[in-house]
Amino acid sequence: MNTTKLRISVLTCMLTLSMTLLAACGSSNNAGANVPEQSANTGSTNTATNTAQAEENATRSFKDWTGHDVEVPTTPQRVIYHGEVTGDLLALGVQPIGLDKKSAVGTVYESSVASADDVGFPFNVEKAMTLEPDLIIFSNADEAQYEQIAKVAPTVTFDSFAPLEDRLTTLGDLLNKQQEASDWIAEYKSKSSDMWKKLKDDGVIGDESALVLTMYPGNRMFVMANAGLPQFLYEGGGFRAPDGVQKLMDEEQGFAQISTELLPDYAADRIFILNPVDAEAQSDTAELLKSEVWGKLPAVQAGHVYYFDIVKATSDATSRAWLIDELPKALAGQQ
Questions:
Q1: What is the pLDDT of residues 107-166, one digit of tens each?
Q2: Which long-range contacts (CB under 8 A, 24 or more apart) does 200-208 make?
Q3: How confident is the model at residue 226 (pLDDT cuts 50, 70, 90)?
Q4: β-strands 59-63, 69-73: how paired?
Q5: 242, 235 in Cβ contact below 8 A?
Q6: Cα(334)–Cα(20) distance, integer angstroms
Q7: What is the CATH architecture assignment of 60-176?
Q8: Are 267 and 301 in contact (CB under 8 A)?
């Protein structure tokens, strides 16, 4: 009996030991089974990180306004813009890190670029270097300046006097904001068309012409054609350009200086005065409005003269959107 009990005891111990070992092995196997899953998760995270970094560092070739083939970031993150239409970038949701801050003073978007650094006018290369941009957009065809600026970061020239749709399409491509550009253009066209239609349906305006004037220091008067407010007024469904202005537009001139005596040659149903910033030019404007020639113009006699600040009624996308709301107010005498 003792021998039998001993054998049973030994067998029991062996069974217990075997079960313990099996349990341990099972636990070990389960732990091992989790390892590939953890490795896979880590690998996925690393892959996503590497993909994001690769996309951020990706570049492509871009041919700019003046013909340079520039290797630019596929999705620029730190953009300096130097030119007249900063509002184009803002319309696409791009906040420049640097610009000529003086050019933004008094504009409808001034507060939107308050955090941007000032790279001055002319362009301050040393200041730009401290901002570490990955792209510079330079609205100028000056090759000597371009060569200096291009040493800071990839730099492309840009035609800020091109039609609005062309500018936004180009910027959408350059900044990887193609959809934003397409959406903005479509919405703007719809709102603009509705505005012009309502003005005509309500009898506020008819099939009429419009002239845009401004004064510069030195008693110099300019007729505006392919720059600023006229681009808005002469778009589809809007006002007609007087013959003299149409000639300038056909010659692709943005503006032309004329004398007071030539004003009748540019007579229009409506006249828009761009209020200058310079005090001397403001004084010259006041003198113009007292002149005999001015008083005899049909638009003046009909009370069809309107005033916009020159820094607000510009051709950038943000200002153009603002004008859709402001023009009807001006025509209704609500300025």
A1: 999 999 999 999 999 999 999 999 999 999 999 999 999 999 999 999 999 999 899 999
A2: 204/328, 204/331, 204/332, 205/239, 205/270, 205/331, 207/240, 208/239, 208/240, 208/268, 208/269, 208/270
A3: confident
A4: antiparallel
A5: no
A6: 92
A7: 3-Layer(aba) Sandwich (3.40)
A8: no
Q: What is the mean pLDDT of residues 312-335?
A: 93
Which helix or strand (DSSP H or E) is residue 221 part of? Answer: strand 220-224
| Cβ partners under 8 Å of residue 230, min gap 6 | 210, 212, 224, 241, 245
Residues near 216 by Cβ (< 8 Å), separated by ≥ 6? 222, 276, 278, 281
Kind and range of the H or E run holding 21: helix 2-57
Domain locations in the chain as residue ranges: 1-57, 60-176, 200-331
Count of residues making up the chain: 335
What does the block give as tokens for 323?
Answer: 């004008």
3's tokens:
């021998």
d(CA 48, CA 79): 25
Whether the full predicted model's pTM is greater than 0.85, yes or no, is: no
Closest CA to 214 of 164, 256, 267: 256
Specify whether the CB–CB gap between 80 and 134 falls below 8 A: no
The token pair at 16 is 């217990």
- Summarised one tens digit per residue, pLDDT across range 43-64 is 555 555 555 555 668 999 999 9
pLDDT digits (tens, 9 = 90+) for 256-299: 999 999 999 999 999 999 999 999 999 999 999 999 999 999 99
| Closest C-alpha to 152, from 86, 85, 97 | 97
Question: Residue 252: what pLDDT?
Answer: 87
In the chain, how many H helices and how many E strands? 12, 12
Rounded Cα gap, residues 131 and 120, in angstroms: 13
**Look-up: residue for tokens 């149903």?**
269
Q: What topology is assigned to 200-331 in CATH?
A: Rossmann fold (3.40.50)
Terminal CA-to-CA distance of the chain, rounded, Å?
118
Structure tokens belonging to residue 25: 């092995």
Extract the tokens encoding 307. 């005033």
| Average pLDDT of the segment spanning 176-203 | 97
